[in-house]
Write a structure and sequence with these properties.
Layout lengths: L2 E6 L24 H10 L4 E8 L4 H7 L6 E5 L4 H11 L4 E6 L7 H11 L4 E7 L6 E3 L2 E4 L7 E10 H14 L6 H8 L5 E4 L15
Parallel strand pairs: 1-2, 1-4, 2-3, 5-9
Antiparallel strand pairs: 4-8, 5-8, 6-7
The structure holds cytidine-5'-triphosphate and magnesium ion.
Length: 214
């Protein structure tokens, strides 16, 4: 199962309260968040291409940081995460694409293998974990509904798609000026293609707030 990866690194990391983009944060291993996420894909021979999406002013710093590899290319980030993905998609050459937050350096190779297995039979899949908390829908400060906890899952990345499918969904969202909070949601909105759930791992957190920096 050959695929391309879009590695999203064009955010600001404002919620971590660092003075710089969190993907440059050094983990205990001595490697940055960005290098750690990148290496997971570069160590997979099925990954034929990694498109790193980053802010224009950070491209040089990223190039200096990472070990050169013929599979790596760069795209410029956009205003929102969705815009960054759309820019990355323009560079993708493979028929399947894995979209991953660079801010999730703890992804395991077992999860990558599970996603690749799912893509043998599906055109859209993503890592999700069952919610351990009860989730409630709230309007104007009052609870309106409580979905059954067994039906509630938390979406992670990678989210993986047939490239032509996710491209067309992104194009339609751009025309409608509609912003989703993840890529799978665009497939839910703009296609009838089922989105397959692949059970992920609690460790695959997105570094977001200061407590996530270890
Ligand atoms: N991202 C991106 N382009 C954007 C916004 C986010 O490529 N315009 C990337 C981030 O670099 C990150 C991932 O999308 O790897 C997930 O987004 P998030 O956790 O929100 O990261 P930031 O936007 O950087 O953080 P914050 O929202 O706290 O500023
Ligand atoms: Mg953000």
């Amino acid at each position: 199962m050959n695929y391309s990866t879009i590695l999203l690194a064009a955010g600001k990391g404002s919620r971590t309260h660092l003075s710089y983009n969190k993907v440059f944060y050094k983990l205990d291993s001595g490697k940055t968040v960005l290098e750690t996420s990148l290496d997971l894909f570069l160590n997979d021979p099925d990954c034929r291409e990694v498109v790193i999406v980053c802010a224009e002013h950070e491209i040089d710093a990223m190039k200096q940081l990472i070990t050169p590899d013929a599979r790596i290319r760069f795209a410029t980030g956009g205003e929102t995460r969705q815009d960054s993905v759309a820019n990355g998609l323009k560079e993708v050459r493979n028929s399947y694409v894995f979209i991953h937050d660079a801010a999730r350096p703890y992804l395991k190779k077992e999860s990558l293998a599970d996603l690749k297995d799912a893509l043998q039979h599906e055109d859209a899949c993503l890592l999700m974990i069952p919610s351990i908390d009860t989730v409630k829908l709230v309007e104007n400060g009052y609870v309106v509904r409580t979905p059954r906890r067994d039906d509630v899952f938390r979406a992670q990345t990678p989210q993986c798609f047939k490239t032509s499918l996710i491209r067309s969904c992104h194009e339609q969202a751009a025309l409608d000026r509609r912003q989703a909070t993840d890529d799978a949601q665009l497939v839910e909105w703009y296609s009838d293609v089922p989105v397959r759930v692949v059970t992920g791992d609690e460790a695959n957190i997105k570094i977001t707030v200061p407590a996530d920096l270890k």
